UniProtKB/TrEMBL annotation:
It catalyses: alpha-D-ribose 1,5-bisphosphate = D-ribulose 1,5-bisphosphate. Reaction proceeds via a cis-phosphoenolate intermediate. Pfam families: IF-2B. Substrate binds at R17, G18, A19, G20, R60, N201, K202, K227. Belongs to the eIF-2B alpha/beta/delta subunits family. R15P isomerase subfamily. It comes from Methanocaldococcus fervens (strain DSM 4213 / JCM 15782 / AG86). GO terms for biological process: L-methionine salvage from methylthioadenosine; pentose catabolic process. The active site is at C122 (proton acceptor), D191 (proton donor). Catalyzes the isomerization of ribose 1,5-bisphosphate (R15P) to ribulose 1,5-bisphosphate (RuBP), the CO(2) acceptor and substrate for RubisCO. Functions in an archaeal AMP degradation pathway, together with AMP phosphorylase and RubisCO. Its EC number is 5.3.1.29. The keyword Protein biosynthesis applies. This is Ribose 1,5-bisphosphate isomerase. InterPro entries: IF-2B-related (IPR000649), IF_2B-like_C (IPR042529), Initiation_fac_2B_a/b/d (IPR011559), M1Pi_N (IPR027363), NagB/RpiA_transferase-like (IPR037171), R15Pi (IPR005250). The keyword Isomerase applies.
Length: 301
């Protein structure tokens, strides 16, 4: 179980973070774990794999890419030659995830025009793929990155895009409304998309969507199909992770009575989302149900 526990820890302490990376790390851990198992009956192998999957899923509660990746890989346990199928399905998940990010880049870049200034929040591989692809297409673009308190993932995005040669401006999260007049389009990632087209993403996303809506700036989320949450179709709510207060601030003892709340994600209603960029193309948020129906038969049957 070493590889499983190690991956669990890395996801929990955010050494591995971002929904896509978390999903791929879980698939990789299951593959490496399966490879190490020998001398077990088929039944014992299946039980061990299921136990490993449950440990991984418990690392962080919000990004649905984690349970979706685990379920995708472990579906191989119901097939003939379960071990081989689990190994194959882990590779399938990882490869299709990487391909999806590339395709999202192409579809999303179509929405970015020459001369546009793009605003992004937090650090999303899928959103970055859209921005880099637009830049690769020769479009003269500028990007505003929010800091993304409390863990400042926006710094990673700013450095990544700057290293790529893009004109980057970093702003504090509360400056979005001040700068919205300079923004042509907002592109963010997704930790989960619900059946009714709502977006669950880094805390602060919903405020940005509201500000964009007020100023009639298009708000797009880049979400691979494995970010869609199958259980929301039957009314299940997505748990919003609340993290340690120390991530926000550490007060001296005298002020220990001050309560600190630190939700890591929030929910953006579908009405503030202009489009969801998936690897099969752009859909309106109302199309989320269709994606879940089409792609998650393997989960809920
Ligand atoms: C990261 C975050 C990202 C999504 C999408 O939160 O909210 O926007 O996970 O990222 P955290 P990607 O840093 O708490 O994991 O497009 O890379 O999957």
């Amino acid at each position: 179980m070493d590889i499983i526990k190690e991956t669990y820890e890395k996801i929990k302490n955010m050494e591995i973070r971002g929904a896509g990376r978390i999903g791929r790390a879980a698939a990789k851990a299951l593959k490496e774990f399966a490879l190490k198992i020998s001398n077990l009956s088929e039944e014992e192998f299946k039980n061990k794999m299921k136990e490993a999957g449950n440990i991984l899923i418990s690392a962080r509660p919000t990004a649905v890419s984690l349970p979706n990746a685990v379920k995708y890989v472990l579906k191989g346990l119901d097939e003939e030659n379960p071990k081989e199928r689990v190994l194959e399905r882990a590779d399938e998940f990882i490869n299709s995830s990487l391909k999806a990010i590339e395709n999202i880049g192409k579809f999303g870049a179509n929405r970015i025009k020459d001369g546009d200034t793009v605003l992004t929040h937090c650090n999303s591989e899928a959103a970055i793929s859209v921005i880099k692809t637009a830049y690769d297409e020769g479009k003269d673009i500028k990007v505003f990155c929010t800091e993304t308190r409390p863990r400042n993932q926006g710094y990673i995005t700013a450095k990544t895009l700057y290293d790529y040669g893009i004109d980057v401006t970093l702003i504090v999260d509360s400056a979005v409304r001040y700068f919205i007049k300079d923004i042509d389009i907002v592109v963010v990632g997704a930790d989960a998309i619900t059946a009714n087209g709502c977006l669950v993403n880094k805390i602060g996303t919903s405020q940005i969507a509201l500000i964009a809506n007020e100023s009639r700036v298009p708000f797009l989320t880049a979400a691979e199909t494995y970010k869609f949450h199958p259980k929301t179709i039957v009314g299940e709510l997505i748990e919003i992770e609340e993290r340690e207060p120390e991530e926000v601030v550490t007060f001296e003892d005298k002020y220990k009575g001050i309560k600190i709340r630190n939700p890591a994600f929030d929910v953006t209603p579908a009405k503030y989302i202009d489009a969801i960029i998936t690897e099969i193309g752009l859909i309106p948020p109302q199309g989320a149900w269709y994606i879940i129906e089409k792609y998650f038969g393997w989960l809920e049957k």
